[in-house]
Amino acid sequence: MANLNKVMIIGNVTRDPEIKYTPKGSAVVDIGIAVNRTFTPEGGERREETTYIDVTLWGRTAETAAEYCKKGRSVYVEGRLQLDSWEDKTSGQKRSKLRVVGENYQLLDRRPGGAGAGGSGGGDEEYSDRPPARREAPSSSGGGFSSGRNTAPQPPIEEDDIPF
Could you tell me if 137 and 154 are in contact, meaning their C-beta atoms sit under 8 angstroms apart? Predict the structure, then answer.
């Protein structure tokens, strides 16, 4: 039988993340995400319910999340569920906690400075407030191959043109 352990959540970051490093040097960040659900029970009065979810990110994903996932930001996280179990040192009781191990994330709101939100963790992308470098179309002069497409210069891409 097939198995699947996949989680996708959208919510708001509940606290500024703090980056930590394992003894072997791997970065790890724990962030909290609040997910809101609005519903109307049979009584007809609209209610809102909030679920708080702990998410752990590793490696380069953790490093970028520590920099960009600030409290209040809207974020989409993909990952898997993991059950942590331990024995409470003070009471001796067995404890457990279900958490999400995030594999990648994307910020959904705009950055405070007005630039578009970016951030899928797990990649080697560089983040900056500068727009991406524009590639110039090859010149069709000088003989040789021509694609037949219009190679007239295009206007530069503005940050507001980028859909994310």
Answer: yes
pLDDT in tens, 25-50: 999 999 999 999 999 988 888 999 99
Contacts of 113 (CB under 8 A, 6+ apart): 129
- Of 91, 92, 37, 26, the closest CA to residue 60 belongs to 26
Residue with tokens 């530069």: 156
The domain locations on the chain are: 1-38+49-121
The pair of structure tokens assigned to 67 is 């920099």
End-to-end Cα, the chain, rounded Å: 38
The C-alpha atoms of residue 16 and residue 81 are separated, in whole angstroms, by 22
CATH code for residues 1-38+49-121: 2.40.50.140
Per-residue pLDDT reduced to its tens digit, 71-118: 999 999 999 999 999 998 889 899 999 999 999 999 998 765 444 344
Q: Indicate the pTM of the whole model.
A: 0.63
